[in-house]
TrEMBL record:
Protein known as: methionine--tRNA ligase
UniProt-annotated location(s): Cytoplasm
PROSITE patterns registered for this protein in UniProt: AA_TRNA_LIGASE_I
Gene3D superfamilies: 1.20.1050.110, 3.40.30.170, HUPs, Isoleucyl-tRNA Synthetase, Domain 1, Methionyl-tRNA synthetase, Zn-domain
Residue intervals of the Methionyl/Leucyl tRNA synthetase domain: 201-591
Pfam families: Anticodon_3 (PF19303), MetRS-N (PF09635), tRNA-synt_1g (PF09334)
EC number(s) reported in the record: 6.1.1.10
GO cellular component: aminoacyl-tRNA synthetase multienzyme complex; cytoplasmic stress granule; cytosol; methionyl glutamyl tRNA synthetase complex
Family according to the record: Belongs to the class-I aminoacyl-tRNA synthetase family.
Known catalytic reactions: tRNA(Met) + L-methionine + ATP = L-methionyl-tRNA(Met) + AMP + diphosphate
A GO BP entry: methionyl-tRNA aminoacylation
Length: 754
């Protein structure tokens, strides 16, 4: 009979015990006497040795006994060396955790007193002592004996093959093994255009300071611009993102009167409110300024003067509504009445909030003074007009070229075309107000510049507050592209009035390249209304306790890009629980927990070729990356987010296809290593794609992966390499109880669905 031996494959003992037993069994095979033939029995899962003596079968269950029997060497079993090895070393094996400092001390004592050489011939005692020491501190043993005898080397390989792997095999040292050249570049403290690079300046519509922004305001401009800015920066484009509060004009004066404060105090109050809201939403402005600055006055007056010098301003006497009750001309917003188009009763003199129509105060039915409700009378007053009719041909030529080359959103082109089709007429750019940029003409020193002429210049002055070298951005069309984000109601002032003003100065301005406009976000089938407590406003989102990343994700997913969209509490909760948690959260949590539990947080050395369809997988991912970049370059953010989440779904599919579990780890170690290595790189790529939408979530993933921010690449790369150490898993999202919907709906004026 040929003797049969089996290895320890159960995980009931510590990994130390399993490995030491199996190494002794492997040494028994290597050092067995010539007359003993040993066959490995893979059917058994515990250490056993079966042989015959004089026809009688017997079984050994102790690895030490098996080694001694195989070598026919039972000497030294009562020696001091054996007792030390058993009591001081092997005692550790039954512990799940071994204090490394204790093990080191014991192994050092072993080397000093007992294991002084590994020269042949070997005894069973010396091999038992070697195994017990080597199991606890292999590095110390290797340092003492750089070269092992051939039989010991063979036994180590055999034992490793038959020992279920454990996290104890992987030593977490905090090592970083990340390929270079793939990280997001750190921008300069002062961001300026660079020769030979793609230079992009991004603006979002300047929010007005007479209110708290609601979700529609946020997604329509600042969030949309922020997503695109973060995308650009993650592509390592040289990018500047500016915004600020629009603070001049009638609306400020009227709101200040309502609150009984000066316009300046009102602006200070709401500027701080807006900044707090945007900070919480993690809007990453490079500079968030305001229009009530000396730079605004200087630049706006210079543009006005150049337009005047070039013959593009004209003086007209015009009829204006005058309030005899408080003896003052009424600016557009000081007049309210019935809209002539939709008959909304609270239309303003410049615009109807219900239908969006731009109005003249004389068009209003039954106009009234906003201050005292008296009926105004008509009087003549002199004002300055921008001669858009003289600029019309140049504006049209510029529009046709810019809208095509910049691939403006459809609604941007439609709205602008409508204005141009009707023909441009001189437009009044002064107002009878106190709060505003003074008109730089002696005759008009008591008037100010019209806010919609003035406000768009705010982008320039806010940049000037950021850097004294602002002209490198705004008077550098050869090297800079301007991207602007806003709601559709702001379009004409950015595509007709402001570009016309730039053209009229005859200076070399950086002009609009890409315009991206949104439709309206509705709230649960109705409109946002602060006065009626309907809708979620910026400060309300924080009150819910839901993270900014979830809010950003949901708003981006319903971004009203080509038509109006609806905010729904049911959909909001569903997007968190069924998309973020079930898709992205599951991918990261499943794999990172596995790496933490099985690999002690150490990325194993891996060969992607161990995955049978790796080439196909890479091709799939590259297609996703290409589609994502194509959509995001055009600021199709809603579609970009869908594609980013599809990569996360592909990652989940990858783990499922390859059946990542304990069996794979133990039985197919090379494949398990490859799945882990490739899978972590998929997560890394996902983190880069979702960063524009959920920067906090991406940064958490980067922290978990112990890796720098990854640039958005054109193709999939294995940037995280073998022997890299990751950190402990963290939950990315929390489940929201669907019962919370009705609480929020009641709190914020939503409507229950039938």
């Amino acid at each position: 009979m040929v003797a049969q031996v089996s290895f320890e494959k159960e995980n009931g003992f510590s990994s130390y015990f399993n490995y030491s037993s199996n190494l002794k069994v492997a040494l028994a095979i290597e050092y067995a006497t010539k007359d003993l033939k040993i066959q490995i029995n893979d059917d058994l899962k515990t250490v056993q040795f079966v042989d015959q003596i004089q026809g009688q079968e017997f079984t050994l269950f102790n690895a030490n006994a098996i080694l001694c029997y195989a070598m026919n060497d039972f000497t030294g079993q009562d020696s001091e060396e054996f007792h030390f090895s058993e009591s001081s070393l092997e005692s550790f094996f039954r512990q799940q955790e071994v204090p490394q400092e204790h093990a080191t001390v014991c192994v050092q004592k072993t080397l000093d007193n007992y294991l002084t050489s590994l020269e042949e011939p070997m005894t069973s005692l010396k091999l038992i002592t070697f195994v017990n020491a080597f199991t606890l501190d292999p590095e110390q043993i290797i340092a003492r004996f750089p070269t092992f005898p051939e039989k010991i080397k063979n036994a180590i390989v055999l034992a490793a093959k038959h020992t279920p792997r454990s996290s104890k095999n992987f030593k977490h040292t905090g090592t970083s093994k990340i390929a270079t050249g793939f990280e997001v570049a750190v921008q300069s403290e002062e961001i300026l255009p660079k020769d030979g690079e793609r230079n992009i300046i991004i603006t979002s519509a300047l929010p007005y300071v007479n209110n708290v922004p609601h979700l529609g305001n946020i997604v329509g401009s600042v969030l949309s611009a922020d997503i695109f800015a973060r995308y650009c920066k993650s592509r390592n484009y040289n990018t500047l993102f500016v915004c600020g509060t629009d603070e001049y004009g009638t609306a400020t004066e009227t709101k200040a009167l309502e609150e009984g404060v000066t316009p300046r105090k009102l602006c200070n109050k709401y500027h701080a409110i807006h900044k707090d809201v945007y900070d919480w939403f993690q809007i990453g402005f490079d500079h968030f300024g305001r229009t009530t600055t000396p730079q605004q006055t200087e630049i706006a007056q210079n543009i006005f003067t150049e337009l005047n010098d070039n013959g593009f301003l004209e003086e007209q006497s015009m009829k204006q509504l005058y309030c005899e009750e408080h003896n003052s001309y009424l600016a557009d917003r000081f007049v309210e009445g019935e809209c002539p188009k939709c008959h909304y009763d609270d239309a303003r003199g410049d615009q109807c909030d219900k239908c969006g129509a731009l109005l003249d105060p004389f068009e209003l039915i039954n106009p009234r003074c906003k201050l005292d409700n008296s009926t105004p009378v008509i009087k003549n007053t002199d004002h300055i007009f921008l001669s858009l009719d003289k600029l019309e041909d140049d504006i049209k030529e510029w529009f046709l070229k810019a809208s095509e080359e910049g691939q403006w959103s459809k609604n941007s082109k439609t709205i602008t075309s409508s204005w141009l089709k009707e023909g441009l007429n001189p437009r009044c750019i002064t107002r009878d107000l106190i709060w505003g940029t003074p008109v730089p003409l002696e005759k008009y020193k008591d008037k100010v510049l019209y806010v919609w002429f003035d406000a768009t210049i705010g982008y320039v002055s806010i940049t000037a507050n950021y850097t004294k070298n602002w002209e490198q951005w705004w008077k550098n069309p050869e090297n800079v592209k301007l991207y602007q984000f806003m709601g559709k109601d702001n379009v004409p002032f950015h595509t007709v009035v402001f570009p016309g003003s730039q053209i009229g100065t005859k200076e070399n301005w950086t002009m609009l390249h890409h315009l991206n406009t949104t439709e309206y976000l509705q709230y649960e089938g109705g409109k946002f209304s602060k006065s009626r407590n309907v809708g979620v406003f910026g400060n309300n989102a924080q009150e819910t306790g839901v993270s900014p990343s979830v809010w950003r994700y949901y708003l981006a997913s319903i971004r009203p890009e080509s038509s109006d969209s609806q905010f729904s509490w049911d959909d909001f909760v569903s997007s968190n629980n069924n998309e973020l948690l079930a898709n992205l959260g599951n991918l990261v949590n499943r794999l990172v927990k596995f790496v933490d539990a099985k690999y002690n947080g150490v990325v194993p050395k891996y060969d992607p070729k161990e995955i049978s369809n790796f080439d196909e997988l890479s091709s799939n991912i590259n297609t996703i990356l290409s589609s994502y970049i194509n959509e995001m370059e055009l600021a199709h953010e809603r579609r970009g987010l869908e594609i980013a989440m599809s990569l996360s779904a592909r990652g989940n599919q990858f783990l499922q296809e390859n059946k990542l579990d304990n069996s794979l780890f133990s039985e197919l170690p090379k494949k398990s290593d490859a799945v882990v290595g490739v899978g972590l790189n998929i997560i890394y790529a996902v983190a880069s794609l979702i960063y524009p939408f959920m920067p906090e979530t991406s940064n958490t993933i980067y922290k978990i992966l112990n890796a720098p921010a990854l640039k958005i690449s054109n193709e999939f790369n294995l940037v995280i390499q073998g022997e890299h150490n990751i950190n402990k898993p963290e939950y990315l999202f929390k489940r929201i109880d669907p019962k919370q919907v009705e609480t929020w709906r009641s709190q914020y004026g939503g409507q229950s669905k039938e």
